[in-house]
Amino acid sequence: MKVIVPFADVVGEWQPVRAKALEGIDRVFSHGRFVGGPEIAELEQKLAGITGARFAVACASGTTALQMAMMALGIGPGDEVIVPDFTFIAPAESALLLGAEPVLVDVLRPSGLLDPDELETAISSRTKAIVAVSLFGLPANFEAINSIASRHGIPVIEDAAQSLGAGLEDRRSGNLAGLGCTSFFPTKVLGGAGDGGAVFTNDEALAGALREIRDHGQGGKYHHLRLGMNGRMSSIAAAALLARLDRFSRALDRRRSIGALYDRLLEPLRETGRLDYVRSPDMAGSARSQYAVVLEDREALARGLREAGIETAVHYPAPLHDQPVLQHCRRSGRLETASMLAKRILCLPIHPGLTDEQVNLTVERLGVLVQA
Ligand SMILES: Cc1ncc(COP(=O)(O)O)c(C=O)c1O
């Protein structure tokens, strides 16, 4: 089957900055500082500018960023870390790798974001951090989450892996909590030429701790002050990202206009009650990294779209509480929304190279299938 509407276009997204990225990589080959080159500090400065955070610490991946953030908070055995039940496994996995216990909490409908009421119920005397994910590009309700957390004296980490560039009122994603973590996985809003990530904070002491943790806990050469890891980003990865940053705001604008077009075209279908889409009153600030619809009989619809040359994906096919590796985790409440979303969610193509015609075609086909 010929693909008419591809789900993602990693090669196409690099095209306008490919030559510049290759020049930057070539410079790394000339200076030879493949680890810790000047590209890292330059990238960190630009990333801090995007989020408004005082400090950005570039690292090896979004998962590394989450683990480093938890290590900087001193999380370890016996501690609990609250994570949403409907997201990628990385926050739960990072807690487990440190010997802590993830506690799974339900999300809201129709936003798919951490439910602040359920969060408050889940807090125990062992809770040492709360991870709220800005899922599909849309910031979680940090006003409510930060206020609950500060009442209990618990630090908050924003998992901004999918939401770099998003805004919530006058603040930007990555800088919506005490610590923010993002990912530069190639299909993310700011996709890298390989793995990469960053941690953001306004706290100088935490930033210092993060830099030490990233480099084997070293305060000076071979002087290990704390437990760390090799969490570094390569200079080549940073050089490629610096080139990609040139087009970042343009790409973000295009994602936003595609998202708004989907919303407008899908609204009549939503009114029939046959389909819903992930949304919230803060949608205008979303980085629109995924466009998710919620419908019955997802597999048949995905098949119908595929037969028409339209690719889709399922993020995520199971709530975390159904993952074999997380069976022993404490669950708070019934986690019904996470289960429902995992059964019914379907992500439609959204990337800067998509044309309005492709969006129209996707919605048209979806409408026919949903109403058949
Ligand atoms: C919500 C979320 N958190 C964390 C990660 C982990 O990022 P990485 O793949 O860079 O380790 C991802 C990446 O898929 C993600 O989507």
From TrEMBL:
Its EC number is 2.6.1.98. It comes from the Bacteria. GO terms for molecular function: pyridoxal phosphate binding; transaminase activity. It is an enzyme of class 2 (transferase). The modification N6-(pyridoxal phosphate)lysine is found at K188. One of its GO terms (biological process) is polysaccharide biosynthetic process. Pfam families: DegT_DnrJ_EryC1. Keywords: Aminotransferase, Pyridoxal phosphate, Transferase. The active site is at K188. CDD domains: AHBA_syn. Belongs to the DegT/DnrJ/EryC1 family. PANTHER family: TRANSAMINASE (PTHR30244), UDP-2-ACETAMIDO-2-DEOXY-3-OXO-D-GLUCURONATE AMINOTRANSFERASE (PTHR30244:SF42). This is UDP-2-acetamido-2-deoxy-3-oxo-D-glucuronate aminotransferase.
